[in-house]
User: Fold this.
Amino acid sequence: MSALVLNNPPPERDATLLERVRGSYLGLAIGDALGATVEFMTPTEIAHQYGVHRDIIGAGWLKLKPGQVTDDTTMALALGRAIIDRHAIEASAIAHSFDAWMRAKPVDIGHTVRAGIRQFRLQGTTVMPDDEMSAGNGACMRCLPIALATFGCSEAEVRAASRCQAHITHNNPLSDAGTETVILMLQALLGGHPLGQQLHRFAQPLATSHHVFNFRRRACRNPSGFIGDTLRVVFEGLFDTGSFEDCLVEVVNRGGDADTTGAIAGMLAGACYGERAIPARWLKALDGEIRREVVQQAESLVAMAPVALR
Assistant:
């Protein structure tokens, strides 16, 4: 991809923006850690075992330590490192970072992600073939660094940057539509726009254009890794609750792919409500090294925005 040098003046960085930026990245990690405990469980199973699951306790099918995160957070951090190291959104650098992440034997990895990274290893290509089976949530779960690095860019530039990272593993129109909507919502929330406004500006048009995202029909429970299921649960939790904690508790107790629905809901709710709205017990429970790195990346990425797309 040829270089596109962006000459936009950097948006103003004030304390309120940084509060939301930090809240968003911490929200991603906390939603991941909270949801991982009940991943692949049904709502009935969760209710039987936990009543209402609301604490970061680890365990689950991955047998995690309390506060440990999964691929949702660690892939986002790999993406963020590539952007920070190159001061650019460059497909090859991102693919190399994903490759290093996979070589480090992450606790979990999706089939579509694994296939894309393997293709890069074997062929050096950074775009997977367009595939209807790639409509998963793997590109969306890790998209936060793109939202931060392109804060202040045009919508066209944001969408191009999103596809630059997404298509390394997920090349699908539904995946693109959902991921780009989440990024644009994140940026609007970081900019202080009201949550209700984002329902009408981004989420509802997405549901109208692609019925699989229609979150105002029958409530989605036990969601799969399909991007449509994922964002229906996230939007229902986000728009039907009034706090960071209530949003994440509602979302992860739907079960299914709960680490990813929790991660995406966490980044959006964190951008909406800010770091101070995150319960202290969740911040304390989160792995300390992960907590430090997400805060560092959050501040570094938004400080360098907007970056160049290569």
Notes: The radius of gyration is 17 Å. Residues 243 and 259 are 19 Å apart (CA to CA). Strands lie at 88-89, 308-309.
